[in-house]
Amino acid sequence: MKYLKGISIMGKMMVLEGCILLIPLLVIPFYPKEIVYSFKFLIPSLSSILLGLLVFQKKKGELNSYRLVVFAWGYGFLLASIPFYCLGNMSFIQSLFESVSGFTTTGLSVLDVESLPHIYLFYRGFLQYVGGLGFVMMMLLFIQEKESVTLYQAEGHPDKLMPTIGKTVKVIVMMYGFFLLVGTILYTVFGMPVFDSLVHSMCALSTGGFSNRLESIGYYHSLPIEWITVFLMLIGTTNFSLLLLLFRKRFKDFFRSSEIRFLIGVILISIPLMTIFLAGNGESLSNSSELAFFNAFSALSTTGYSTCSYSQWPETALTIMILLMIVGGGIGSTAGGIKLGRVCILIKNMVWNIKKKMIPDRRVTLTYYCKGSEKELLEFSQVEEALTYAQTYLLIFMAGTIALTFFSGCTVLEGAFEFASSLGTVGLSIGVTSASTTSICLLIEIIGMILGRLEIFVLIQALFKK
């Protein structure tokens, strides 16, 4: 593992994260009465910037890239919780929960969003937008380090889209800026207020799911708005390198990707099944298909927007939602979960092993994994990595489900749904998470959200790799 000038880079990250808290102040000219909240952002922001400048002066001291990434996220969680705590009606754990839920792009909330000032509504959405891109990605947009590649990969970005990391980061940020603009315009055209349009676009693209409404997307009762949201969720859950193929109009290569084909297959199976189960529960066929379509995409993309309450859903439909949340979105995207690519590799390996038992020993069979324009032979190291991650993820999911069920007193299915949502950074809730949820339950979900966003092994390598 390559070591970096860690203390100096830590200072730069602290300055950047302090600057992030200044952005919500741009809302004040549009809502002048909310200037009373400005100091709740200014004080922690300026304190972080000054402290970061002091730390930056200390040139000595080395840290491996994984520890730097974990520091950036951990410090960001604590710093971003301060404006929430300054509201005065939240405990420290609740404030930290809201901050972690924002930056990890989860979307679970303990706030009454209908009574929040606009500056806080924008703040929550902006946290998710930044969290979707990642702190290291944001830092590399402004500051290039010699060790940029190491930091970029340590944060969980596997692909270098351009010849240099600097150009790669700029391309990704430009793509997300473009889709943010498109989403905001489309939402506004179809009847959503401009402010709501901006916030929902940020949260849909980052697969975050924070909303300005308690009823989420269901508040608007608009099929066009649901379709726009699905479009933005799909963009957010798609691998950055595959998005670049779309920008370059290489549609054939895009649809050749094993990950995209697997995503289409999962959707074609899950939506009809959910429609059948919902229709069997008393819903009309048209309403069932509409509910299944939107909520299946929301779960698989790990966004967490909803159009209904899940309290009356049949257990069969809820089970499919849990499975979709566990599978998650694309590798290298803003989504959580085990990831489509890993699950696809495991299924390809399973099919290959079954085929081997059905053909003569002398016949050679090969399995390929397509990344769009590149078709690679599936190797043992890829299968091993995917299997190890999936096994670890499922063990954590089972442990978290048991813990949440025990401490909250909910049913096992409710505990599984809620912790799958936390660990997959989804944000859908069956009612376990609210302002009255105990601190121990919130801490369990916080641990799940952090493990899900940092993809487990980053934390392990930060803590134990020498």
UniProtKB/TrEMBL annotation:
Listed GO MF terms: monoatomic cation transmembrane transporter activity
GO BP term, pick one: metal ion transport
Residues passing through the membrane, by range: 12-31, 37-56, 68-93, 121-143, 171-190, 227-248, 260-280, 317-338, 393-417, 437-464
Principal location listed in the UniProt entry: membrane
Species of origin: Floccifex porci
Similarity-based family: Belongs to the TrkH potassium transport family.
Membrane topology, as annotated: Multi-pass membrane protein
Name of the protein this chain belongs to: TrkH family potassium uptake protein
Keyword Transmembrane helix attached: yes
Subcellular location field: Cell membrane
Keywords: Cell membrane, Ion transport, Membrane, Transmembrane, Transmembrane helix, Transport
GO cellular component: a single term: plasma membrane
